[in-house]
Specification:
Blueprint (H helix, E strand, L loop, with lengths): L6 E5 H5 L10 E4 L6 H4 L4 E2 L7 H16 L4 H11 L2 H11 L1 H15 L4 E5 L9 H12 L1
Parallel strand pairs: 1-4, 2-3, 2-4
Helix pairs in contact: 3-4, 5-6, 5-7
Protein name: DUF488 domain-containing protein
InterPro entries: DUF488-N3a (IPR054495)
Pfam families: DUF488-N3a (PF22751)
Amino acid sequence: MTSSNPLEDTYVAALQHDLVEVPAEATLVGVVRRPTGWFRTTVDENYPALGPPDDLLDEFKQRHEDFKMQGMCDEGAHNAAWDEVGFTDRYRSHLTDAEEAQEAVGELTDRLQDGEQIVFVCFENTDQKRCHRTLLKEHIAAEL
């Protein structure tokens, strides 16, 4: 990660295992609807409103498990479930339609405009799997 970009993203295991360098001044912002205890201890704060909505998350997880039961590898099942439930469009709609998400996006946009450096954090390793935090990062970059 470079310190010249005010908005970056990574996954929690990369932070826990020192796989990424994060500037000391950056704020680690979780974007997880259902954070675990160990997730909370890794990030500085969490915005549950920016996690995928419960109905989308539940449907996605069910399809992911279904695909794994059919013999797909974890990454393949993840990405197939993503496509099947229309994750990209539904998550983008959540960001623009849900009041709690709009408020969170506005707050983070203001913080970035004030010069704060933010790193979004969730669970997925985006080298193999698609992730909502990438969509969120694109959405906020467009707001800036």
